[in-house]
Every structure is written in structure tokens, then in C-alpha cells.
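hiii so um. not sure if this is the right channel but i have a protein structure encoded as C-alpha cells and i wanna go backwards to a sequence. like what aa goes where. can anyone help
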């Protein structure tokens, strides 16, 4: 609809009714301005529940999501579930955004946590990137987690995948909480970049660890914490719009 409306420039020597008819757009929609979305309290609750379930089960479509909501006691039809999922930017059976793209020229460090028992704070930190869904798109969220306390030491939002916001997050965590013994990440280009590695190598006692390829559970603590924080941020941003 938006594309067809853009074809009507207003410069054509034809009546508006004729132009609208040619591109199959009603005159009411051509002249009308869309009202800004203001979710009701019921919608905000459903958005939170849908986002929470989708974070756990990203392969759920609108039929399964409606079934889950009915089991929780919320009577809602499938069209409403579809509308709310579109509002959150969710797509059925989508693999999601790839936030861990490798860079072929970056050095990969070995995984150091196999068999390690975490017994104290600042023994192991982990980091990961996910995306925070918004009504008209998304932003990237990076966080650093202490494995012992499961505390989010620092986090940053960005509209791009540049390494700079990851470095800023790292520097804030180091400034506030000191230096960990081991810093673990996946093999994403942001964490293997020269600028990020150099920020870690400033500290001689810190050892760098990276998840092995295909080992999705290596960084499970930070991924779970990121999922919860993403859900809260998404709903908060929706409520403020």
C-alpha cells in the first residue's frame, strides 16, 4: 500500500480519483494519515507474554502462540496474535538475526572453561549480542555477565554492529568491577576484532576464551540473561511510544 501510494506524486495531469484508481489505492487512504500506535493495557500484557514465549521458542507461529495464550487464560483470536507479532517484528519460523558472524582474518582463541568450576566473582565474565525488537525495527543489545553472581555488569544498545559499543560496554564493566581472570565470548567479529582484543590485552592477568563453533550452550548464562533483559526493554519501549 505504501509503495503504491508513493507512485502518486501529485504532479500528474489527472484527477486524484483517476490516479488512485490506476494504482488501486482508495482516495480515503491517500488523503488519510495513519494514527500513531498506542497500545492498550491489554495489548501491552499480551505483547509481553508473546515476546517472552518467542524468546524461549523462536519457531512458534501465530497458531501455536494463540494456543499458549489460551492455556494461560487469555481469550484471543489468531488475527490479534498475528497483529501483535507483527508489531513486535516477529516472523514465524525465522532463524533470527545472525549476531555472531565470523571474520576470516581475526584470531580465534581457545575455549578455556571446559571442566572449570566457577567459585567466586570476577573469575569468569561472558558477553554476547542479541537484538531488541521495536515496533519499527530493532536495536542490538550487548551485555557482560559475571558467571558466579549471574549479574549483568554492563550493557549497551546500538543501531549497528560496529565493535565500538561492545568496547564501551567492556570498558564500563572493567572500570566498575575490576579485571576478571577469564573473559569468554563467541567468535563474532565484534569480539575478535583488533579493537576489542586490544582492550582485553591491556590487562596481563586476563585470559581470553572463545566458544567453539556450534557450541550454543557454552555461553548459556549470558544468553538467558540477555533474553530477559531484551524482553523487558522491548515492552518498555513499546509502552513509551
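sure thing!! here u go:
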Amino acid at each position: 500500500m505504501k509503495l503504491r501510494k508513493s507512485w502518486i506524486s501529485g504532479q500528474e495531469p489527472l484527477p486524484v480519483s483517476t490516479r488512485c484508481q490506476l494504482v488501486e489505492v482508495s482516495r480515503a487512504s491517500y488523503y488519510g494519515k495513519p494514527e500513531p500506535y498506542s497500545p492498550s493495557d491489554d495489548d501491552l500484557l499480551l505483547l509481553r507474554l508473546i515476546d517472552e514465549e518467542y524468546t524461549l521458542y523462536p519457531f512458534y507461529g501465530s497458531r501455536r502462540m494463540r494456543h499458549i495464550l489460551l492455556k494461560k487464560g487469555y481469550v484471543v483470536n489468531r488475527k490479534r496474535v498475528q497483529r501483535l507479532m507483527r508489531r513486535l517484528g516477529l516472523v514465524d519460523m525465522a532463524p533470527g538475526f545472525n549476531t555472531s558472524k565470523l571474520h576470516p582474518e581475526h584470531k580465534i582463541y581457545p575455549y578455556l572453561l571446559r571442566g572449570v568450576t566457577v567459585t567466586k566473582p570476577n573469575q569468569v565474565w561472558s558477553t554476547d549480542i542479541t537484538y531488541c525488537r521495536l515496533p519499527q525495527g530493532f536495536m542490538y543489545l550487548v551485555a557482560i555477565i559475571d558467571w558466579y553472581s549471574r549479574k549483568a555488569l554492563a550493557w549497551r544498545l546500538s543501531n549497528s554492529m560496529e565493535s565500538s559499543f561492545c568496547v564501551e560496554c567492556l570498558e564500563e564493566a572493567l572500570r566498575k568491577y575490576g579485571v576478571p581472570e577469564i573473559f569468554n565470548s563467541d567468535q563474532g567479529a565484534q569480539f575478535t576484532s583488533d579493537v576489542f582484543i586490544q582492550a582485553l590485552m591491556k590487562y596481563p592477568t586476563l585470559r581470553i576464551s572463545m566458544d567453539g563453533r556450534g557450541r550454543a550452550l557454552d555461553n548459556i548464562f549470558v544468553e538467558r540473561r540477555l533474553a530477559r533483559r531484551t524482553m523487558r526493554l522491548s515492552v518498555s519501549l513499546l509502552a513509551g511510544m
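oh and The first strand starts at residue 124 and ends at 134.
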